[in-house]
Amino acid sequence: MRAIAHARAVVPTTGAQRSSPRARVATTPRRAGRTSVTSSPPRTGNLGVPVAARAAPLKSRRAIVVLNAAADVPSSSSTDAKGAVSVGALVLALGVAMLLASADRTIFAAAALGIKSELGMSMRDVATAQSAFLWGYGVTQLAAGAASDRFGGARTLLGGLFAWSLAIAATPLSAMASAPTTALAVSRFMFGAASGCALPASAAAVAAHVPPERRSGALSAIFAMFNCGSAFGLAAAGGLIATFGWKMIFYGFGVVGAVWAIGAWAAMPESVKTWRAPESSKKDIVVDENGEEMTDLSPEIVTQLLALLWCHVVVNWGFMILQSWLPIYLANDLGMSISSSGVIGALPWLFTAFMSFSSGQVADKLIARGMERWKVRRLAMNVATIGPALGLFALKFTSTPAVALACIIATTGLQACSVAGYHSYLQDIAPSRAGAILGFTNTVGVAASIFANIVTGASVEATGAFSETFMLTAAMYASSCLVWNYFLKGKVLFP
User: From 1.10.760.10, 1.20.1250.20, 1.10.10.10, 3.30.43.10, which CATH number describes the 79-487 domain?
Assistant: First the structure.
C-alpha cells in the first residue's frame, strides 16, 4: 500500500495565513488491513461531529481525502502588508451593492403598470419583460460563480454593480425605440446578465475573508441589506413615479449604483483588490485509500447536490414571485393605488430584512452554545419553508387587505431565514466551492423563476387573481421542507 507523504491540510485562522502540519499516515489494526490519511487537526465528517485523530478502521473501501497540489488556502480573514480586511467594511460595501441589486429589481415591479399603460403592453408582455431579466441573470450564474471563487467575490460584485447600473439607467431609452416592448426586454436582459454575479460573489467574498464563526452573521447582514433594497425600491418608486414618472426612477438608481461601485472599490484594501484563489483551491486532488486519484462524483455527493438544487429552486421560485408581483397583487387583488401599493409593499421587505439579520445572529449564538451547525441550518430551513407554506395557503381564503397583508409579511419574513439555512449551509459543507455551487444551483433556480413568472402572468390573465399561484408555491415550500430534513444532514462535500 502506498503511503502519501505530502498531503497538506488547512487550518482556518482569524489572522495571517499559516500552513498546517503535514498530514500523517495512521495505520489501522491488521484485521482492518487499510491505511487512512489524516491531518492535524482532523476534519469533520458531519458538521459539528469531530472525526477522531486516532487510527480507526475505515467503514468503506475508499478513504477519501483532498490533497492540495500547491500552497495552502489562506485563512478566511487573510491579511497582507498592504492592508487588512475589515469584516465590517466588507459587509458594508457588499451589503449596499446587494441593496441596490434588490432595489433595481423592484423598481420595475413598481413601475410595471405605468410602463404597461405607456407602451401598450399586455400582462403577458409584462411577464415577458420580467422573464427577460431572469434569462440574463441565469446565463451568467456559472461564470460569475467561477470568477468569484478564482478572482475574488468583492471585485466581481462591485464590477457587476457598475455594469448593471448602466443597464438600469438605459432602461427608459426603450420607450424611444421603434419596437419598445422588444427594446425593454433587451434592456432587462442586460440588467439581469450584469447582476448575475450578486449571490455567488457575495458567498465567495464571505468564504474568503470572513472567519467561519462569523459567517452566519456576515451573510445575514448582507442579505438583510438585500431585503432592505426591496423595501427601499418599492417605497421610493411609489412616490417618485407618481411625481416624476417612471423614467426618472431608473435614471436616478442607475447613477447611484455606478457612484457606489466606484467609491466602494476605491475604499477596498489592497488585500481584497489583489486577492486570487490559491493554487491549491484551483487544483484539488481527491484520492482513495491507495493514493489513486478519484475524479468521479460519488452517488452520495450527487444526491446531496440534487437535494440542495431543489431547495434552492424553491427559494428562488417563492422569492421571485413575491418580489416581482407583490405591487401588482396589491393593486390588482386588493385594489390599492400604485403609490400606496409601493409604500405598503415595502413593509413585508422591512420585516424580511429584520428576519434575515436576526436569523443569522440567532444561528451564530446557537452554534456558540454547542448546537451542531447542520442542526442549526435545518432549524432555519424548517422556519423558512413551513412558515411561507402556511402564509401562502391562508391567502387563498381571504380578500381582506389587512389580513392578506399580514399573511404576506409573515411569508416574506419567514422565507428570509433561508439565509441562515441554505446559504450558510453551503459555507459549511463546501467552503472551497461555495461560489461555484451557488452559481450552479442558482442557474437552475433562475430557470425555475422564469417559468414561475410566465405561469404567474398567464394564470393572473386567465383567472384575474393570484390564488392559484400562491397555492402552487405553498406546495413547493412544503416539499422543500421534506427534502431538506431527509437528505441534508451536514455531510461535508468539498472541504
Answer: 1.20.1250.20
